[in-house]
Amino acid sequence: MVKVVFICLGNICRSPMAEFVFKDMVKRQGLEKDFLIESRATSSEALGCSVHRGTQKILTQKNIPFSDRQARKITQSDYDKYDLLIIMETANYPNLLRTIGEDAQGKVHRLLDFTDNPADIDDPWYTGDFESTYRDIHLGCDALLKYIKEKLI
Ligand code: 4NP
Hints:
The chain is an alpha/beta fold. The chain is 41% helix and 14% strand.
């Protein structure tokens, strides 16, 4: 079982989008039982809030199932719980380290670093552009799944 947690600032826009996109990909490939997939925030800004309407809308448009969930913050023990902690942008890294301490086992990766075009994923909370975020997240999740299938399962 590979345990993956997607992490962003608020856990209402990007990381839940990545959680549901990745769950859908994994399910389509019949690999559901090999994975635990969740998402968390680095900040307390939106704790308890539902998935952002913009994320809900784009997931609906793309026929990707999602459930009602509330934003949760990453905890120190999550570092041991998960195999891969996948951040959306470089700015998430120092925020994450404030909670988990150091990344001693090299579990933290930026999502688009698995692709041929390493980059941050812009925050649609500020840009309002959920389509571009979806495109990046889909590319990143696709590359991440390939990486996991080659290296970990
Ligand atoms: P996310 O976007 O990190 O992609 O979930 C944000 C959501 C909420 C806030 C910031 C970013 N906020 O400050 O409440």
